[in-house]
Write a structure and sequence with these properties.
The complex is a heterodimer of chains A (about 160) and B (about 425).
Chain A (H helix, E strand, L loop, with lengths): L3 H5 L5 H16 L5 E4 L6 E7 L10 E7 L10 E5 L29 H13 L10 H7 L19
Chain B lengths: L4 H4 L22 H9 L18 E2 L6 E2 L3 E3 L5 E2 L1 H7 L20 E2 L6 H41 L3 H14 L13 H6 L8 H42 L8 E2 L2 E2 L12 H17 L5 H15 L1 H19 L34 H21 L6 H4 L9 H27 L1
Antiparallel strand pairs in B: 1-2, 3-4, 3-5, 6-7
Helix pairs in contact in B: 4-7, 4-10, 4-11, 7-8, 7-9, 7-10, 7-11, 8-9, 8-11, 8-13, 9-13
Classes of the chains: A alpha+beta (about 160), B mainly alpha (about 425).
Chain lengths: ~160, ~425
Amino acid sequence: MTSTSAQSRKTLSKIACNRLQKELAEWQVNPPAGFKHKVTDNLQRWVIEVTGASGTLYTGELYQLQVDFPEHYPMEAPQVIFLPPAPAHPHIYSNGHICLDILYDSWSPAMTVSSICISILSMLSSSTVKQRPVDNDRYVKNCRNGRSPKETRWWFHDDKV
Amino acid sequence: MMGNKLGKKRQMVEEKYTRPQGLYQHKDVDHKKLRKLILDSKLAPCFPGDEECALDLEECPICFLYYPSLNRSRCCMKGICTECFLQMKPPHSTRPTQCPFCKTSSYAVEYRGMRTKEEKGMEQVEEQRVIEAKIRMRQQELQDEQERMQKKLEISSSSRVVAAAEVEDYGISSSSIAVPSLRYPSQDNVVISSQASCTTPPFRHHLNATQNREEDFDLDLEEIMVMEAIWLSIQECGSQRHGEMGSSVPPISGGCYLPQAPPSSEASPSNGLVCAVAAFAERQHLNDSDHPLSHNIANASAINCISSRDGRQMANYTPQNWIEVSSDSGRAVLREEDGEWAMDHGSMIAEAGTSYSSSSGRTAVAAEVESTGSAMPDTVEDPCFQPAMVAGNHSRIPESFEEQMMLAMAFSVAEAQARKSPHGLPWM
């Protein structure tokens, strides 16, 4: 359960811990449709299984999201990536990084893991082509040293998908 | 409702609540200014947040802790505790803060003290509407799913439509009602799946009607359970909030937990429904566990009560989930502003939070309730629900007076037990 980014991360603040516990409890009662939280004892890293919605390009396909929470969650956004293999999508890089504004600049502490999941599923569902982003290779090469997507200066150009 | 400024000024706030309680390590907080704002009732006092929901506490949607009162955003009226609010303006930031809930730029809050009864009522109504919308969505999903299945069935059996016609002919010529599918088990599904056509002989009509009714009932029962779970959790919290001072035990009547009427004057459409479900459960219980449905109902009510605390959270958080999902991904151009807590912005951008609650919600759900109501009697018709079956395995009605009395007593004992036990489960 460790990676370079996990080791450099500080433990959760008290407030982050409390909130995540409540989010998890709420999730267990009322999980977002199409998502399954993989049970671990690690509150700071959630692995979530996503099932592609029916009637979309990803119908029935299974993917895994990894959500890492920073010390100051929810004031700071969690890091959300797809574990390999990441779905082919114009906004998802082959290293699992997701180009989605709410994960970065547009994050708000009023959002929750559950609402992130819904946004990601909605992004998947609205895709019309199974295709990597045009700059996939360049971007992935730049990230080879294990850079977090949160360090990327994202440029959100497409508000359709 | 807005509160009289003169009367409100210099409200008594304990000194210790005029500074942060250490929820965050605040940087750049002007403690003097904060103290003044709290004493002037422009910001909520820094009460220490409670972990558990209790009487008359409000949950801050950022830290998930409970407080006696919260600040409200001017743009969308969402609550926020003072310490979370202080975190909203990033230190050294040159740009005005966006509302964390509705993304309106130049976020500002105001403090109106504890919520009034009207405000609480309004909030609950809004919560209800969101839940109702969710139920409608779920129903739509179920319906779509069913239609898809139906289509699949139709496609797979289209080659056998001829067979269906044969069955029809047979039905007409023999004019025997007892024929049904039993004798033609292999063609049974054909009859069912081709029900879309309208020119049907009476006997087939009958078959289809039964089939439809059963399907409807399955669907409705699931909805009833979902709705009931949601309602109970809301109502339970409501009763915690409003009723705890007097009697803390929720009223139990006729073996069912009667939710208190919501603060709005409208009666809850599901009040009757809950009773109907309970009555139905009772009936089911008489029949013991022969019928698979009786398990479902008992389980459902058990779940209701176990999950009720979290159910409330759900009720609380749905509105903002909606907003987040719909929050536009285009970024607004932000302009420079060094406001003092951005307190004095007159710009009132209305109700992002309520835009989903269509006013037709209530009537739509009421209609659903009606349709489930009409589904109920069907089950009663089913012979296995007849009380006579409890007394003996045969439906003979005793002839002598004594026997009849015995039967009546046995019946009432059974009923009394049935009343006790389904509720032993949830309330334990």
